[in-house]
Amino acid sequence: MFSRDIADYPDGIVLPVDKPYRWTSADVIRKIKWAACRHFGKKNLKVGHAGTLDPLATGILLVCIGPATRRAEELQASPKQYVAGVCFGATTPSYDLEKDIGRTCPLDGVSRESIEALLPSFVGQQMQVAPLFSAKSVDGVRAYETARRLLREAQARGESFDPGDVLQSSLIEIYDLKLLSFEESFSSAPEPVEPTEGRGRIKVADVREASLKHAEILVDCSKGTYIRALARDLGEALGSGAFLGSLRRTRNGGFDISQALSLESVLEMLG
């Protein structure tokens, strides 16, 4: 429990929240801000986060309350760690399960051995093109807004949609990559979910019938690294295609996943 006086926290509060699946980062902030404003009796209490997580990702989302929001940029700049479930044999426009499979690809060159041999070549500084379905800003417009417009136009023409290299590349660094497991089939494909209102509006595509191979990879990387784009690039490097089937952030801003709090726990602390 927190005291009722925000002045008791002169440096503010940083909470490592385990972001729920299919919640946007903004959803989490709105929920916690409402609870924090009520708890501390403040109408305009600042609440923000240090590093967005995609809706279908889970793991550490650092929520900053009060004066701690001034540390958001510093925390966001810290190294990050993820466990990424990469599916080989197909691509989606969003590079994850928010969009349906748009293209199937050969799997001949995809194996445990080929992935293990490939990973070291992706370690180090490199230029990376972010996913078009992302929050990256281009000329003041969010990339996902452009992507949605291009997707609608392609569908109206009855054409498939390929994001292409619409975005400029950015310098990122991958410190380490480790193959944790490999499956000859994607046996853990999630149940498809159609979007609904509110926080349930995020779709989960149905890929259970697709012929896919699956690798779980531990990624240590810098700020600004898009793991969906890494999945795309791994697939292309193997002469196939790939997208993210799952993503969990396990380290950020000096916090480990073992320290993460469930959203329910945080709301109880602010009750």
Can you describe this structure in just a few lines?
By secondary structure, the protein is of the alpha+beta class.
Molecular structure report:
- The chain starts with 12 loop residues before the first strand and ends with a helix.
- The chain is α+β, with helices and mostly antiparallel strands and 271 residues long.
- It has helices spanning 25-40, 72-76, 112-118, 143-156, 227-237, 263-269, and strands spanning 13-19, 47-49, 57-65, 80-88, 90-91, 103-104, 124-129, 137-138, 141-142, 169-183, 213-221, 242-252, 255-256, 261-262.
- The protein is 22% helix and 30% strand.
- Strands 1, 2, 3, 4, 7, 10, 11, 12, 13 and 14 form a ten-stranded mixed beta sheet that branches. The protein has a two-stranded antiparallel ribbon with strand order 5-6. It has a two-stranded antiparallel ribbon with strand order 8-9.
What is the secondary structure topology, with strand pairs?
Elements: E1 13-19, H1 25-40, E2 47-49, E3 57-65, H2 72-76, E4 80-88, E5 90-91, E6 103-104, H3 112-118, E7 124-129, E8 137-138, E9 141-142, H4 143-156, E10 169-183, E11 213-221, H5 227-237, E12 242-252, E13 255-256, E14 261-262, H6 263-269
Parallel strand pairs: 1-14, 3-12
Antiparallel strand pairs: 1-3, 2-3, 4-11, 4-12, 5-6, 7-10, 8-9, 10-11, 12-13
Question: What general outline do the C-alpha atoms trace?
Answer: globular
Question: Unreliable stretches, pLDDT < 50, 5 or more residues?
Answer: none
Spatial separation of the terminal alpha carbons = 8 Å
Strand content: 25-35%
Helical stretch tally? 6
Query: Helix fraction?
Result: 10-25%
Return the string of H and E elements: EHEEHEEEHEEEHEEHEEEH
Determine the oligomeric state from the structure.
single chain
